UniProtKB/TrEMBL annotation, chain A:
Keywords: Membrane, Transmembrane, Transmembrane helix. It comes from the Bacteria. It comes from Glycomyces paridis. The chain crosses the membrane at residues 12-32, 44-63, 70-95, 107-124. This is Integral membrane protein.
Automatic annotation (TrEMBL), chain B:
The keyword Transmembrane applies. Keywords: Membrane, Transmembrane, Transmembrane helix. The keyword Membrane applies. This is Integral membrane protein. It comes from Glycomyces paridis. The chain crosses the membrane at residues 6-22, 34-55, 67-87, 94-115. It comes from the Bacteria.
């Protein structure tokens, strides 16, 4: 056990798996939506694509041990899901079709809201321990 | 989709997730018995895929490419979770594989929705 503990060890490993699954599923869905019916809900589909990109950045940053980039990505993600969630409730006309972050991620079992909170707690704990 | 087979797959995915989270709480490393558990889930998912290949193309609705892309992704999730989780030496190794069971259950729910509302209409 002489190797140093990396960011993707322990609970970070579970977080990375969920981030990768979300990057792939939200990303594939957003690419398909942008390619086939972008005009129907441009704001939603653009936001979904951005969300997928942020999930990917967060996953890669944790795997690579880039703690600051991971913290930045997860922070942006939390701000994004709260802001888009609030906006989708306040101005539903902007979202004729849901984005990943609409209604605080209700279409994905609220995992998009729980994930950045869990990620932030984990990253901040690891930073405090370092 | 055959309803009982779908429910068996769901039960297996959730049972595997619950069992592995108990193993997480007990700080177990990923071991042979866990691979057997994942193997059972994979066998059920393959049966689901085989049945789907047999009956989905004959259905009236659309969304079949979406259906199969979800199903193939679902097949890969426990395998990826196993590889990624088993290299961890902490309790969260098996915890990661446990999470893959819940992800399979969520994806199967979505696949069943696609079947009900888009394909089997």
């Amino acid at each position: 056990m002489s190797e140093p503990r990396r960011l993707a060890d322990g609970f970070g490993r579970l977080i990375v798996l969920v981030y990768v699954v979300f990057a792939v599923s939200a990303g594939a869905r957003a690419l398909f939506q942008v390619a086939t019916k972008f005009g129907e809900a441009p704001v939603s589909f653009t936001l979904s694509a951005i969300a997928a990109a942020i999930y990917l950045v967060a996953a890669v940053a944790i795997i690579k041990g880039a703690a600051r980039l991971a913290l930045l990505a997860v922070g942006v993600e939390l701000v994004g899901v709260v802001a888009v969630g609030a906006l989708s409730v306040a101005v539903p006309d902007l979202f004729p079709e849901p984005s990943v972050w609409s209604h605080f991620g209700s279409g994905y079992g609220y995992v998009p809201l729980v994930l950045p909170v869990a990620g932030l707690v984990y990253l901040l704990k690891r930073r405090a321990a370092a | 989709m055959i309803e009982w087979l779908y429910l068996v797959v769901q039960a297996a995915a959730l049972a595997m997730g619950a069992w592995f989270f108990i193993e997480t709480a007990r700080s177990q490393r990923v071991g042979r018995r866990h691979f057997v558990g994942v193997g059972v889930l994979e066998a059920l998912l393959l049966a689901q895929l085989a049945v789907s290949i047999a009956i989905v193309p004959g259905e009236a609705g659309g969304g079949k490419a979406l259906f199969f892309s979800y199903l193939v992704t679902t097949l890969l999730v426990p395998v990826a979770g196993c590889f990624w989780g088993s290299i961890d030496r902490s309790r969260w190794g098996i915890g990661t594989v446990a999470a893959s069971g819940l992800i399979v259950a969520a994806l199967m729910l979505r696949i069943h929705q696609i079947w009900e509302f888009q394909i089997h209409v």
